[in-house]
Amino acid sequence: MSQQWKAVCNVADIPVLGARVVKRATQPDVAIFRNSEDEVFALLDRCPHKGGPLSQGIVFKDRVACPLHNWNIQLDSGCATAPDEGCTQKFSIKVEQGKVFLDMNELQPVSGEAAAA
Ligand code: FES
Which ranges carry the Rieske domain (predicted)? Predict the structure, then answer.
């Protein structure tokens, strides 16, 4: 399926070393993180440990520290660093002219796609 990019915010709207949340109607929120290099990453706002809100964690380099039990989650993969194990969902993201885009097909998975064909 081709990507359907949708602008969700500006890079400048995301706190440096912090995150901004994109709400979804029926599914858990998506957290968009910004590191000190102005790189952005999108992960499900749920820690793979016990579901902590990663958007409230502290970003450092390419990781975010979960606010609940301090697991370190890699922003580019969504996976915990050793010795912890587990991954949270990551989302496609792109930046153009200072705007952050997410793929609507990933944000709102189409159910019953076959029926619509
Ligand atoms: S819920 Fe994130 S470290 Fe426990």
Answer: 6-102
